[in-house]
Design brief:
By secondary structure, this protein is mainly alpha-helical. Helix content is 82%, strand content 0%. It is found in: Chromosome, Centromere, Kinetochore.
Length: 210
C-alpha cells in the first residue's frame, strides 16, 4: 500500500485514503473466503448425489485451498492496480486545490520564520499576562491589608474621640493638651524614678563599703 501519509486528503475526507483502501481490501478478502466456503458446500452436496464418486471432503478442501490461493494471488495483483488508480484519481486532492478552511493561509501567507516570530510573540504576551495577573493578585492582597489597617486606625480614632469627650465632661479641657501634659508628667516621673534608683544604688554601695 501507499506510504504517502496524504495528510491533506485525510483533512478533507476525515480518514486517510490508505485506511479506506485497507478496509476495502479486507472486505474483498472476507467476501472471497465466504464465497469459497459456499462453493465448497455446494460441491460437497453435488458429489454426494453422484453415485460412485471417489472424491472425499478432505480432498475437496485441499482443492478449495489451492484455488483460494490462486484467487488471492490474482486478487492482490488486481487490487494493487485498483488501489493505485483510486489513490491517484479518486481519493487524491490536486496540488492546485485549496480547502475552504485553508484559504486564509492564501490571503495571509506566512513563512516559517514569520510564524516562529508570531509564536515567540505569543509566548511573550502569555508571560506578560501571567506577570500582570500575579501583580494584580499582589495589589489585591495589599489593598485588603490596607483596609484592615484603616479599620484599626478608625477604631483608635474612635477611642481618642471617646477620651476627649470624657475629658470635656469632667472639665479637663482639650484632650490633646491634656494628653501632652500627661506625657510630660510621665516623663518627669520616669526621670525622678531613675534618679531615685541611682541614689539608692549609691547608698547600698556605701553601706557595703562601711
Amino acid at each position: 500500500m501507499s506510504v504517502d501519509p496524504m495528510a491533506y486528503e485525510a483533512q478533507f475526507f476525515g480518514f486517510t485514503p490508505q485506511t479506506c483502501m485497507l478496509r476495502v481490501y479486507i472486505a474483498f478478502q472476507d467476501y472471497l473466503f465466504e464465497m469459497m466456503l459456499l462453493v465448497e458446500g455446494v460441491m460437497l452436496k453435488k458429489l454426494d448425489s453422484i453415485p460412485g464418486c471417489k472424491i472425499s471432503p478432505p480432498q475437496l478442501r485441499k482443492c478449495t485451498e489451492k484455488f483460494l490461493l490462486f484467487m488471492k494471488e490474482h486478487f492482490n495483483k488486481l487490487f494493487s492496480k485498483m488501489e493505485e488508480v483510486l489513490l491517484q484519481l479518486v481519493l487524491n486532492i490536486p496540488k492546485n486545490v485549496l480547502l475552504p478552511e485553508d484559504r486564509v493561509q492564501e490571503q495571509y501567507p506566512y513563512s516559517k520564520e514569520e510564524f516562529q516570530a508570531l509564536q515567540d510573540e505569543l509566548q511573550q504576551l502569555q508571560q506578560q499576562c501571567r506577570e500582570e495577573a500575579a501583580a494584580e493578585q499582589a495589589l489585591r492582597a495589599e489593598l485588603e491589608e490596607q483596609k484592615a489597617v484603616k479599620a484599626e486606625l478608625e477604631k483608635i480614632l474612635q477611642c481618642f474621640d471617646g477620651l476627649e469627650n470624657i475629658c470635656r465632661e469632667h472639665g479637663a479641657g482639650n484632650f490633646k493638651e491634656s494628653f501632652a501634659l500627661l506625657t510630660q508628667s510621665s516623663k518627669k516621673l520616669q526621670d525622678v524614678l531613675k534618679d531615685v534608683e541611682e541614689k539608692s544604688k549609691k547608698m547600698k554601695l556605701c553601706d557595703q563599703l562601711m
